[in-house]
Amino acid sequence: MGYPDGTYITQRLRSRLSRIDSRPITTVIAPMGYGKTTAIKWWSTRRTKSHEAALFFRQIIMTDSITDFWTGFCRLFRDFPDVYEQLMKLAYPRDLRMLLMCSEILYSSLAKLEKNLYFIFDDLHVLPAKVITQIVLFFARDMPENIHIVLISRNQIFNQEERMRLGNMLGEISTADLSLSRDELHDYAKWCGVEAASDEIDTLARLSEGWFSIVYLNFVFYEKTGGGSRVLPTFSA
Predict the structure, then answer these.
(1) Is residue 157 domain-shared with residue 206, that is, in the same domain?
(2) Is 123 domain-assigned?
(3) Which residues are CB-neighbours of 218 under 8 A, at least 6 positions away?
(4) How many domains does the chain have?
(5) pLDDT reading at 229 higher than 70
(6) Which residue of 60, 61, 174, 235 is 20 to 30 Å from 29, comparing CA positions?
């Protein structure tokens, strides 16, 4: 018994991830422990291997400081010195005039690149509400076709009106997409080499509601006890 190398991604989730290329903006929203970041890392790694010309820019939000966010955003362009310097001088765009200037800087530089660019912003829930959404919504109106933005958060990013405005420009990956169904959980158990009884796996699927972290921790416990203890040692309580 033992866990194989690599990352387990369901066929259902793979299908959802494959649509990122067809949307300017994709949100990945679920509580902690559903594998949001893991799924996007898996997708971006495969994308990088199969499309060497693509560029990936990834920013993890560490603080709730707008200044820190903007500094981190500007650093994404350290290989484009002119863009980096212009954005740093501009500062975080707080009004329409600054948004227009920011859009002009980015569009004039990035639209010339003959490759797809993917901007991944992780842990957006750390930022105050609407810090990044106003920028994304503004850019969405005339975003170059080669740019795709992936927003990862525990909380909703766009409200219903904003989602309607974005229409088919917006792709959404939700808790339902990241959760394991009963059949997927059985498949995951086989992938991990967990030889628990079928009814135990069914119980785990029902009580965990497919929450990946809970499933994984139960499998780890099961493996450490040599398979002698039932799956769900603590969660069922």
Answers:
(1) no
(2) yes
(3) 204, 208, 231, 232, 233, 235
(4) 2
(5) no
(6) 235
